[in-house]
Amino acid sequence: MAVAAGLALAGLGTVPAGAAPQAGATAQTAPAPQAAAGPGKVSTIAPTTANATPPAAPASPTLAMDGAPAMTAAPDVGHPIDGRIGLQPQVTTNGQFAHWMHDSILLPLISVISIFVLLLLVWVVIRYRRAANPVPSKTSHNTFIEVIWTLAPVVILVLIAIPSIGLLQAQFKPAPAGAVTLKAIGNQWYWSYQYPDNGGFEITANMLKEKGDPTLAPGARYRTDADGPRLLAADNRIVLPVGVPIRLITTSQDVIHSWAVPAFWIKLDAVPGRLNETSFTIKQPGLYFGQCSELCGARHAFMPIAVEAVPPAQFAAWVKAKGGTMPGGKAPSDKVIPQPGADGSAAKQAEAKAADAATGPVENTTAAAPTSSQGATANGAVGNAGQ
Fold first, then answer.
1. Mapping DSSP to helix (H, G, I), strand (E, B) and coil, where does residue 86 land?
2. Cα–Cα separations (whole angstroms), residue 193 to 93, 294, 305
3. If you ran DSSP here, which 8-state letter would residue 94 be given?
4. Has residue 14 got a pLDDT over 80?
5. Are 99 and 163 in contact (CB under 8 A)?
6. Which of 200, 225, 199 is nearest to 210 (CA)?
7. pLDDT value, residue 340
8. CA–CA gap between residue 297 and residue 301 (Å, rounded)
9. What's residue 86's pLDDT?
10. Do 278 and 267 form a contact (C-beta atoms < 8 A)?
11. Measuring CA to CA, how many Å separate 190 from each of 135, 236, 257, 278, 341?
């Protein structure tokens, strides 16, 4: 019996000769759990869209923001170009009108006036030189000429003022219902951003340093051509939807800054203790750069702005990847935008949460009202009252 039991156990552990190759093939073709996500040292974060480039390794200098599309700058839009004369191509309605006004009205008018004044000076120098005019004229007034040189500038300024006032009014027109609110906060020397209508998440953007910079920390991300031009590339780009009104609010934590993106025709000061507001609508997707345009200290030149303009669906996916939410409907924004340091600001809320975590929540109790013989007034007894 013992021999039979041993043979039976040996038979259970034996694999037929024909089955061995199949088991080996299965072991070779079945993917390991880690291998399914990709090669080693590569992030397993799923891309936001099917066309998005998979995120690179965390140590890679070309690391894209989580959920944001990997976008590179166009060759001639959204950033300064060496040797270009004129304004940057505009991608907002106000910017396109201002560009047209500059090229079609102001520049020709300035050129004509400058050439006219130059010709007058040349004519006076030649006509009234000593050799041609030995006896100078003693004429001191000419009513006709005086009327002309007074009325002509007035008419020119009035004609320029008509489109200028309209453009100025459009630049500060309140954002309509359904606009996306972006709050830009200037700091020395970086920008921080909040999306109040999308859950209030925050982004901090610093300038990317150059490879080989002696101040670059070991293993830190550095600028590449894919990030953008030198001094304009930021480690975190803000993302805005195309075709949707943007409500821009600026303020500052320390000194006066200025949020400026030339392609949007936007330059709005960020003043401590104040909230400035404007609105604009981006008309085409792309990557656009700007920088602080108000002298704010030693590193004023190192406060870049990088904006990715994407379709609304990609913007919604990016907001979700950041942990935010999309508001429903097209109701006007009802979010309170507190100033830095105010009770409702992010810093004050963080301090309150830290205090609650350290001391525990405060229990609200109702104190018993003191008894008084004076009736409902609760004033102390006067004279013989109550005796």
1. coil
2. 24, 18, 11
3. H
4. no
5. no
6. 225
7. 57
8. 9
9. 86
10. no
11. 68, 11, 10, 21, 18
